[in-house]
Amino acid sequence: GVTAIWVRELAEHSATRIEGTEGARGPFWSPDGSSLGYFADGQLKVADLRSGTRRTLCRARRPGGGTWSASGTIVYSPDFLSVPLHRVPAAGGPCTPLTVRAAEGLDHRRPSALPDGRRVLFSSYRTNTAMVVDLVTGETREVRTPGNEAQFSPPHWLLFRDPAGTSTVHGPIYAQRLDMETMRPVGEARVVLDRTRGVGGFFRFSATPRALVAVRPSDKPLSLLWVNRQSVVTDSVILPANAGPIVTSGNFGLSNDGRSIAFGGLGLWIHNRDRNVATRVRAESAADQGIIDPAWSPGDSLIAYGTVFRGALSLRVYHVARGTSDSLFALQWRNVRAPDWSPDGRRIAFGLSAAESVPRDEIWIYSFGDRRAVRAFESERSVTYPRWSPDGRWLAYVGSAAGASEVYLRRADGTGAELAVSTAGATYPRWSADGTRIYYRAPDGSVMSVDVRLGDAAVLSRPRVAASRPPFNMTTRDLAVSRDGETFIAYGREEPAVLTLMLDWAAALDAKQRGDAK
């Protein structure tokens, strides 16, 4: 379950692992190819491939890509959800903001340096726009709309995707010539590859003048699996198209009676397990809006969820019987994640993402009685994914510092000490129905269990394995537990990613454009 950077020569059949890059994501090359920038442990780092040294440059909680300019400046996205692009000298130095987020924009991500060492291309998923920023003046201007996931390839190519044009997370890669003086598109945009994966912080494709490599989505749909304590699959459900994980959300919620599943994605679906039928319901407040982390109320009459991509970032509820939805809470450009209902249905605990003025993720609680939300407690680490105990007096949650995540426990009113539940890495806590156990996913994919005795204080046992390395997805680790604690529900493993290599793609486009001109 631990990622690392691997390098493969295109003329070779094998790849080489770069030692010391455990946990790495989003690698990008230095202009001379001797070093790699990457993200790991909540930080931006550099690996020198000749000396084998590693160094840390800046904090990057939820990165959205980086690029290394010919002038020796690294431009990076420290949090693709809520903050502008930043810059830092590749040799080390201060980490400072580069762009200024416009009122209508949310995300500045996936920077791509131009050959002049002065300008950097980047894009916004929310506005579906490609932009360019000048490293000297800081001037930012629009290059193209639509222009999502924009990337530059010498000598004059703009590559991009248009999710609004496909209404799916899998869509084509387009290429269009740029006038390198005015940075304006020239001629017609053409499809280079029919589809690649989209949605997320990092590039799903990379291009040079001669070669283009892209991650191709599998034709096999994702499945939700029911697994017993012997790690044997006992049931499964195939997800609807456009439903499932987006960004870092697992995006499913099991109803309390176990008969229905809510799936988020580019919409909201309710799957009836008795009939094995999924129905799309109207829960979004804007076109092409993403819905994340649906959670059923105690009586299964409401579904709480967060919204992303389009419209306000908000906590909303869907009324199952009426087929209507309401907005409960929104706070500027902060992202609502992982809502969970209190046992009496009067409150919802949820995660609220970091922002420019807030360096850490926080847990907040919305009260239906007060019709407002407040921060649950202060913490020196990022905290998220809150889960109420069945008696409503305690919260289990995930706390992260320097990239490492563990499950913790504390009183729901914020008083008392924080208790460590896990000891060697953990995500996605879940309570047993009687409140005597907490389950979570371990780094190796196993489901772990900790016995809990609650009272004026909490007494915890040592973690033990509840299901050893079940065939669950190692990337999307969301977890649900049956009421009897004997069955665990999570996404099944996907087919291995397939990288498609296209040679001489640019020459083919040039030739086709010359032919069209004639």
Task: Characterise this structure.
- The structure is a single chain.
- The protein has 518 residues and is mainly β.
- Helix content is 3%, strand content 47%.
- It contains one helix and 46 strands.
- Strands 39, 40, 41, 42 and 43 form a five-stranded antiparallel beta sheet that branches.
- The radius of gyration is 23 Å and the shape is globular.
- The mean pLDDT is 91.
Name a few traits of the molecule.
single chain, 518 residues, mainly beta, 46 strands, 47% strand, globular
**Overall radius of gyration:** 23 Å
Task: Report the total helices.
Answer: 1
Overall morphology: globular
Query: What class, by secondary structure content?
Result: mainly beta
Biggest pleated sheet: 5 strands, antiparallel
Report the span from N to C terminus: 54 Å
Low-confidence stretches: none
